[in-house]
Batch of 3 targets.
Target 1
Amino acid sequence: MKKADGNNLASWWSKTKKRMSKEKKAPDTENPEMTAESAEVADTTTATDGATTATEGEDVAAGLRAQIDELNQKYLYLMSEFENYKRRTSKERLELFKTASKDLVVELLPVLDDFERGLQVMETATDVGSVKQGVDLVYTKFRQVLQGKGLSPIEASGTMFDPELHEAISQAPAGEEQVNKVIQEVEKGYRLGDTVVRYAKVIVGV
């Protein structure tokens, strides 16, 4: 009886060691169903995050394209306005030049008429004094028209030589007081407003 109990005890201990050995070798894993469910949730989350990022990227790209289109439209509009402005100002400038010349010519026509009448009188005139008086009147009228347009003579004789106003065509000996002064005006100079339109041709003393 004792021998049988010993055999049973030995058998029980052998089975117990085998079971303990299997438990040590078995991996400490979680429930397979829970692991699969967790993996599925993780995949779903990753896919959702990827879709959200892609959608946000598309929205940003669409916004940038809209801004580019708007800027292009503004650029084309400004270029069109600038071209119209250049054409308009060029046309106005040409018309201004034509109008300015027209106004001057219209004001000079009466002077031309006076010259023609003077020439007719000179053909039969015997009184030189009356002819001279008529020429003086025409000259005065002509000068007044030009002065009304801003033309004014440049002072030259007796003034210090100024290269901004005078053009020295020659030099001549003069006294100490006349050195570098204009001693003779050969051709009168003129300003139109503040702009010199013709330099006075002068002889300068040395």
Target 2
Amino acid sequence: MVNCCRLGRAPSEEGRILYESDNFLIFPTLGPIGIEGYLLIASKKHYEGTGDIPEGLLPELEELITMTKSKLMEAYRKESIVFEHGPKVGNSGWGGGTSIDHAHLHVIPGVDITSEFAVSLMMHLDKIGKFYKVDRLDGFKRTGEIFHSHRTSYVVFETPDNKRLVSEINFPGESQWLRQLTARKIGTDKWNWRLYPDRETMRKTFDNLVREF
């Protein structure tokens, strides 16, 4: 529970909450890779991923995603990507690259890694038996199906033009997988939030967006 408390309590302790709904928080991420406007939407209660969130809370989450992307467009005049690294599955090591198994979505303005993610998926099929299956969907029903099967994990990726893709995977993604792809896209290797917290950019994001929310 220590890790999930980092998302559940630490943002409020650090005074960086931009918006709070009944069940979720929106706040600038620690380790924003130098990208101003990089936000997280995290559940207050501990759920292991969006696939673990009760169906009744998903409309609230969808409203927050739409609102967050709109606010970032107003502030930065840039479209955003949204993604979630799915949680680890048992002792298999399979997972979408999450470093904290707590439901949280990354929302990043101005960087499009759609092509990079597609290539990275294919590159993971280096051994017989590995697979991924991509569904073009609205909502999070598919993540729930995958999560509750306890057989595979997933990655959620929403493109700048609002196409949501859910990729089921049966292999371990690298730590902070899509953050690594994002960092590579903008020409930096500072993707690890633990090593490169970049509090200066995080604080700039808060200061710039606090009136927007």
Target 3
Amino acid sequence: MHRISSGPRVVLFDLDGTLVDSVELIVRCFQHTTAYHLGAPLERTTIVATIGRPLRACLEEIAPGRGEALYATYREFNNAQHDLLIQPIAGMLSVLPVLRGWGYPLGVVTSKTRVGAEAALARFELGAVLDTVVCLEDTIQHKPEPEPLLCAARRLGVAPEQALYVGDSTFDVRSAQAAGMPVAAVLWGAGKEADLHALRPTYLLSDPAELLELLRPAPRDSGETPVVGRSAGHALQF
């Protein structure tokens, strides 16, 4: 088992595809919206490739000049179907309280609006274990730019290299790398393993339990943090 001499001080998470399984909700919202406005539903693979980016920008790209109309239809359908279609990621809801119990401040960094993020967090009562939530409205630039992650690090009083970002998309990996932040890419969300691996994230995890192994406090006499999972490239020193 590879070991590093010190670990991250805080842990930040993406939301969609990382903490909650919202892929089916997103796909159905997109397909309902594009069928209504454009006459045919968008292909699932095209929709999944947008997950992690701001919604309004994606809809404007699909229908230039009509993005706001599509956004209104999307939000109406989302509001009606949200609690029926969104699901927790198996294992992740139990991971967060354990990390909090180990003393890690926790945060979420998402491209969702605050209304959308709070609805997802409230659905599974996650707000109580989080110390900060950075949403679309909190920064000018968005993933894959580094600004949202840098905002979260500032709020929690740490340097970027002292935080670990956990996300499922290439946008998450690129944002963390641009911020100078170690990143654990996860394989249980929307991202494809080959695409994530190609970006050489710090860690590549296939199961939420691996995150606990990665972050488990070391025995008091060792001074080291155990690291497991599949290292995808350079092992960054936190």
